[in-house]
Design goal:
about 525 residues; 24-stranded antiparallel barrel; two-stranded antiparallel ribbon
Length: about 525
Amino acid sequence: MMNLNYFQRDTSIKASGNPLYDNYLSGSEGWLDLRYNIKGFTFFVRADAFNNSNLKSPTAASTDFGIGAWSISKDMKDLSITVGSIYDQVGSGILFRAYEDRGLLIDNALVGIELKYKLTKNIMVKGFTGQQKNNSNTDVNTSVHTPPYGPIIKGLNTEGDFSAGKLHIIPGVGMINRTLDANSYASVVASIKSQDSLHHFQPLYNMYAFSAYNTLTYKGFSWYLEGDYKTHEAISEYNLLVDKPGNVEYTSINYGKKGIALSLTGKRTEDFVMRTSPNEVLLNGMLNWQPIVAVLRPQRLMSRYTPASQDISEMAGTANLVVSPNDVTNFTGTFTHINTLDGQELYREAYAEGFYQGIQSWIFSGGVQYLEYNISLYQNRSLPNGQTIMLYAVTPFLEVTYRLSEKKSFRAEFEYMNTKQDYGSWVFALLEYDLAPKWSISVSDMYNIAMNKNADNPNANDANFLTEKAQHYYNIYTSYTKGPHRFSIAYVKQVDGINCTGGVCRYEPAFSGVKATITSSF
């Protein structure tokens, strides 16, 4: 896989003022994965290349080259051993998850050893130990050659798989222990001593966390339930280190039969911060992954306000209902409610969508979203006086697809977001032509139709906020696929905002220029 970027300076949308636009003008990232299997052995290596890349820090250039990941595995009758870069998780990942996300340049592989043993026909045990890859630097170098984080991570996980008639259960338990190294411990002690005397305490070298979970399925019904607990330790909370235990309770219930499907999801989180060290923040040193309870919307305008999971305090629930009265029609309704544990409002969504393909060659879908979104918490932006600001938005949308043949189709998408907060109201339109399986061409525009210049604008005193006039944000895209090879290129004008991938979110500044991607497998 290779990404190529050309940075076109555009002061009207604030795509300027950093070395990428002012000096370097271009950048790239590349990855090559190689995997070889022979006689029960699996050899894996991944080469990473970064040349003036903006993936790690969107306003700075990173350059480096080296081996980003490697591993050697041996599968025997009941035992599997892996050494090197380990990507795995316990349960849903709330307790522990080592994974790679290239869109956000997350790569928190566990560098160490993992053993998996099939204890019985229905029970698997795995244990692992190592250090987490350090992928946090944002200076001139990336982290290909950076040593891993100092703390040691150890884990044990047992999982079963049992059936009795139509009843099927997959229970599991897990445990994680993180031991600080001397340097990390000294850094935590120094941070605590720098706080006022009311917040002084003696930190611990060891943190332990435990998980119990189960998936139950019976006919059209499935239920996942998980509980996680971690012992007290220093955690970062509201710019202070405090000594607290943590816990998470998570559940997902799904039921479906012909014509109807219902899903309910809930999560309660209290001080469940899992890091290599209490001093690590943002995307640095993450040991786990917490699922987002809200439904991630693919629509361009709605995706700007996706709620990231909260480690400190969250009470979240979502209900999603799909009704299909016949083979050509279905309706979807969703309601999401997210607060802090003390009742502060974070997120509300009421969503309705309809889908119809009862007219030959035509497909219609459309609906509306009502949204309440806490900008102050999710995007760390408040009014000049520190007051919390909520965004209230109504977004109707329509999508129409016309199939010229089995391989050719046109698709049109329209969205309108009405809001008085943040940048104000938006309109978005997209036209796409697909010639399967090779070509896809699209043109879109996102326009700030009613700008917000009022005092309730959380960006009012931000030099990067566009207050002069409304802007067009064009996107001209084409892709070509031939066998295992895919090539894409796009001319992009992108407004600043939150970008979320796989439940993990980060802020990205405005972008102007060309993006190209090449992916291939062989």
